[in-house]
Amino acid sequence: MPLAKQARKANSSPDKPSLIRELVEIADYIAHLRNEIAALRANELTRDRLPMAHEELGSVVAATAGATNSIMNTAEEILGLPDDKNYRATVEARMNDIFEACTFQDITGQRIAKVVEALHQLESRLSRFASAVKAKDKGGIDPEEVERRVRRELLILNGPQINGPAVAQDEIDALFA
Amino acid sequence: MALDLGMPILVVDDYQTMVRIIRNLLKQLGFEEVDDASDGTAALARLKNRKYGLVISDWNMEPMTGYELLRHVRADEALRTTPFIMVTAESKTENVIAAKKAGVNNYIVKPFNAATLKSKIEAVCGA
């Protein structure tokens, strides 16, 4: 019989010392914690989902770089073509190379969707765990992160904005007029 | 004043595709003398060795950003008058204001097109 059940049985009468009641509560909490840790399925995340996300994103970067290079090679080739009777036919043939290069988007879209799904899973499991164990963030940020934040702040490194430029080119132009 | 198509231009960007895009756009505009550097440190080394008519720089690079490069250029007696255009995805007002205060001549937000690049070069280098 599990310890918590034994203790609960032993503690059925109200005159038992409160120490046993507290031990029962602790045992219950530990059992609850173990269930929540198991529900995190941390091994599955670190063994399957996160490596998959790394791999898929790596493939996306490689595919976009490959497609960009193909398109740029073709464009440069077109720019260097002699203006002769073959010009149109050659340009049309090179255009097909560009269309082919653009097919990367379908596959990368699917890869990114898998990564987004993995992140959703991670988010929901962590959120459930944090709420189940009433986790509170504690302690400072690690020194490397502090260093990165200070650099970002000092050098105004905001990065690209989610919905396009924060300030339109026209507004910037007005500042330089 | 017409643009000096023979002036050397330094393109600073850590993303080789962007260097290639800007290089091609400059070529289309008639500029043939284009060098590149992958960050501010490499750009400063190039600037010490050759007189450039224009610097076109990204902002977010490692180890030296374009913003730091701009400040170095403006603080250097020999380089301080070099025209400098920032071409970047950093599009917050604070970035634009900081760059202007540091002495940038013009500012282009990515993504941009050939016409925008051309108009800014003309605005900065004459025409």
Structure write-up:
Chain B: Residues 8-125 form the Response regulatory domain. Chain B: The modification 4-aspartylphosphate is found at residue 58. The complex is a heterodimer of chains A (177) and B (127). In chain A, helix 1 runs antiparallel to helix 2, helix 2 packs antiparallel against helix 5 (104-132) and helix 3 (42-79) packs antiparallel against helix 5. Chain A is elongated. Chain A has 177 residues and is mainly α. Chain A has helices spanning 3-10, 18-40, 42-79, 87-101, 104-132, 143-154, 169-176. The relative contact order of chain A is 0.08. Chain B has 127 residues and is α/β, with parallel strands linked by helices. In chain B, helix 4 (93-102) links the parallel strand 4 (84-88) and strand 5. Chain B has one domain: Response regulator (Rossmann fold). A five-stranded parallel β-sheet of chain B has the order 2-1-3-4-5, sandwiched between helices. The longest helix of chain B has 14 residues, at 16-29. Helix content of chain B is 44%, strand content 17%. In chain B, helix 2 runs parallel beside helix 3. Chain B is built from five helices and five strands. Chain B is globular, with a radius of gyration of 13 Å. The relative contact order of chain B is 0.19. The mean pLDDT of chain B is 94. At the A-B interface, helix 3 and helix 7 of A face helix 1, helix 4 and strand 5 of B.
